[in-house]
Design goal:
The structure is a single chain. The protein is α+β, with helices and mostly antiparallel strands. The radius of gyration is 22 Å and the shape is elongated. The chain has seven helices and 13 strands. The N and C termini lie far apart (54 Å). It has two domains: 45 residues, no CATH class; 202 residues, Aromatic compound dioxygenase (Protocatechuate 3,4-Dioxygenase, subunit A), CATH 2.60.130. The structure holds benzoic acid and fe (iii) ion (FE). Benzoic acid binds next to helix 4.
Amino acid sequence: MRDFDETNITDAVVESFSGTPDPRLRQVVTSLVHHLHDFIRDVDLTFDEWSTAIDFLTRTGHMCTGTRQEFILLSDVLGASMLVDAINHRMPGSATQTTVLGPFFVEDAPVYPLGADISGRMTGEPLFVTGSVHSEDGRPLAGAAIDVWHADDGGFYDVQQIEKLGGLAGRARFYADERGDFHFWSIVPKFYPIPDDGPVGQLLNATGRHPNRPAHVHFLIAAPGHETLVTHVFAADSEWLDSDAVFGVKNTLIAEFAHRPAGVAKDGQKAEQPYRHLDYHFGLKASAEGASSSGPRATIRLPA
Ligand code: BEZ
Ligand code: FE
């Protein structure tokens, strides 16, 4: 193994991994070497560019903390997260489509009773959310665990302004009732930029891309015997629906946040001012092995 040049080094590196005991690891690393070498040859990579790439990845790593995962953000803006999601959720039928988890999910969000207002000290137009959770065959999934989280009217999540808000807000866990239904109150979220003060933001800037995501409410829904659904519902009147920075928008996930006048809402609660109403029905795919399975998780750790 010597005298390598640009025509024979790829085969030599692939061969060096040929004894990998795990066949899947061997397949992945072999393909990685082929694609990486083809990419380097394709662009005729210079030493300066190689060095810039190493520096970029080093800074991306240094940006990561317990509450910031810059590598996932990089994966998001490169469309890799949504590609992995698409490959792993090839689901026909009436199951709800999936999208990225994002960095603002919090494990063990506070449990609220159905009908609660979860906006806390967040400000914004009132939002009434109603919906249901059912299996692909239309059976209501009573007791399904529904995690919701969203930004405020300035485009900030609670975890980005925890001191100002005095705690979590615009997030909760609910359990669907015996008909699989749920409802709650909050405020209408605004579109927002993904965290762009690090290397990923510099990449977007250098390539003339904006960092914005259209307004949305996140849902993570789990029920025994079903794949955990990780998705959002996007506001139909939001900016940026056609250029989401992380490529997460799907037509079936866009819904009207309908304007309603002040008065008694469907749940019997009196709205003192006009409000918006989002009604969305979620379908969960039965898990292959009949057991509850988990979707992607990248847990945020709250500052003590
Ligand atoms: C989010 O929707 O919370 C999000 C998703 C991907 C990157 C940044 C934020
Ligand atoms: Fe979000």
